């Protein structure tokens, strides 16, 4: 998606450890106009998938997921990284290791929001090693639901997550696909 790639080039910063910092429009401050454009694009790419609900993980996946949910007219569920005291109901859980924070969280979703048979579209901000996507796919399977697709804002194809998604046969759509960071520059898939 050219609009997103241009924004990454303009505002993104490559940090040590192959980390892309895009907190000026997604991971800290949110640009709602750009998020709506992302939602429209996700909706276009997954309109024929039969999605009945979108699942994302707090916090940075919420904005693009909500915009996609709005466009597809389906509810959006977000997996919580810590189970709050207000959740007294049964939950589905999965461990998720954070690439950038160096911690493992146990994400959870209340079972009442994932009844058996739902067709789930997973949306997340980044696909690096694929830990969040693996966790959300596990929760989807625990619930007896199907993953009809995985949409990510940014895929870093060189860190293994993309390979995991493809090996498991999930349809994958990334709005910006990075092949590498060379000299602190972002190089997108398909660039010469």
Task: Provide structural commentary.
By secondary structure, the chain is of the alpha/beta class. It has helices at 2-11, 23-27, 32-46, 62-72, 131-142, 161-167, and strands spanning 13-15, 19-21, 53-57, 76-79, 91-97, 104-110, 119-127, 146-156, 172-182, 185-188. The strands form 3 sheets. The protein has a 6-stranded mixed sheet with strand order 4-3-7-8-9-10, with helices on both faces. The chain has a two-stranded antiparallel ribbon with strand order 1-2. Strand 5 and strand 6 (104-110) form a beta hairpin. The longest helix is centred in the N-terminal third of the chain and has 15 residues, at 32-46. The model has no long low-confidence stretch (mean pLDDT 93).
Element-by-element helix/strand order: HEEHHEHEEEEHEHEE
* Shape field: globular
The unreliable regions are: none
Q: Which CATH architecture is right?
A: 3-Layer(aba) Sandwich
Under the CATH scheme, which class? Alpha Beta
The class by helix and strand makeup works out as alpha/beta
Tally of individual helices: 6
Which strand order spans the largest sheet, edge to edge or round the barrel?
4-3-7-8-9-10
State Rg: 16 Å
Query: What number of structural domains do the residues give?
Result: 1
* Count of DSSP strands: 10
Q: What proportion strand?
A: 25-35%
The whole-number mean of residue pLDDT values reads 93
CATH topology: Rossmann fold
Largest sheet: number of strands, sense, barrel closure: 6 strands, mixed
How helical, in percent, are the residues? Answer: 25-40%
N-to-C CA distance = 17 Å
């Amino acid at each position: 998606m050219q609009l997103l790639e241009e924004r990454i080039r303009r505002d993104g910063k490559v940090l040590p450890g192959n980390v892309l910092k895009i907190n000026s429009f997604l991971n800290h401050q949110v640009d709602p106009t750009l998020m709506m454009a992302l939602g429209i694009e996700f909706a276009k790419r997954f309109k024929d998938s039969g999605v009945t609900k979108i699942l994302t993980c707090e916090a940075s996946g919420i904005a693009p997921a909500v915009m996609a949910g709005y466009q597809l007219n389906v509810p959006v569920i977000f997996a919580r990284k810590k189970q709050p005291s207000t959740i007294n109901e049964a939950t589905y859980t999965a461990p998720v290791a954070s690439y950038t924070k160096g911690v493992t969280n146990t994400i959870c979703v209340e079972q009442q929001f994932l009844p058996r048979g739902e067709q789930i579209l997973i949306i997340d901000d980044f696909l690096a090693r694929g830990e969040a996507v693996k966790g959300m796919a596990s929760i989807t399977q625990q619930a007896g639901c199907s993953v009809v697709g995985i949409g990510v804002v940014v895929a870093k194809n060189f860190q293994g997550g993309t390979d995991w998604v493809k090996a498991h046969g999930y349809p994958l759509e990334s709005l910006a696909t990075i092949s590498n960071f060379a000299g602190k520059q972002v190089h997108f898939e398909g660039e010469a």
